[in-house]
Amino acid sequence: MTHTPDTSAAPATAPRMNGFVLIVTMGMYAGFAIPVSIIAMDQSFYVGIVLAAFLAWQWGNLPRMLMGAPAQMPWSSIAPQTPSPAERPSGNASFDAYRAELLDRLEHEQERFDGFLDRLRAAKDQGEFDQFMDDRAETVRQANPAPILPARA
Q: Which sequence ranges are marked TM in the entry (predicted)?
């Protein structure tokens, strides 16, 4: 059982938008962002600066948002595009099979251990709750001793 990364999938390309529509939309965005930033700076300088920075950042994402392309995380362009060492084949099929089996076994053991920890926490919580209830019942018994009933003759 070897695990090889799928390299056959081609990257999805975003649909192209008409240039005129893109220019008009960006102009409308600028027509909104600039006056809003000026008014915000007039009311509160720091809020205006933060709002202007946010709108400028959105300006850079505007074409991608308009064309429906998925937003990328800022660090995705600098992240290495190579598979992790666990996914990369070593060239030795026996070792790759051993590694895959070992990783599967470790995942299974991790799941079992997490289940054990959950049961242990539940038992500890139940023990603490039982101790609390016993202490509370003892405190109530000491505070309100049972009345002594007269003996019936």
A: 20-39, 45-62
Query: Interhelix angle for 19-43 vs 45-66, to 10°?
Result: 170
Q: What is the pTM of this model?
A: 0.36
Higher-pLDDT residue of 30, 93: 93
- Report residue 74 as tokens: 């800022």
User: Using H for helix, E for strand and C for coil, what is the string for 41-63?
Assistant: HHHCHHHHHHHHHHHHHHHHHHH
Extract long-range pairs of 4-12: CB within 8 Å, 24+ residues apart.
Answer: 4/89, 5/83, 5/87, 5/88
Distance CA(146)–CA(48), nearest Å, equals 72
CB 2 within 8 A of CB 100: yes
Six-digit token pair at 129? 């709750």
Whether the CB-CB separation of 86 and 103 falls below 8 Å is answered with: yes
How is residue 151 written in tokens? 């003996």
Q: From CA 124, how far away is CA 122, in angstroms rounded?
A: 5
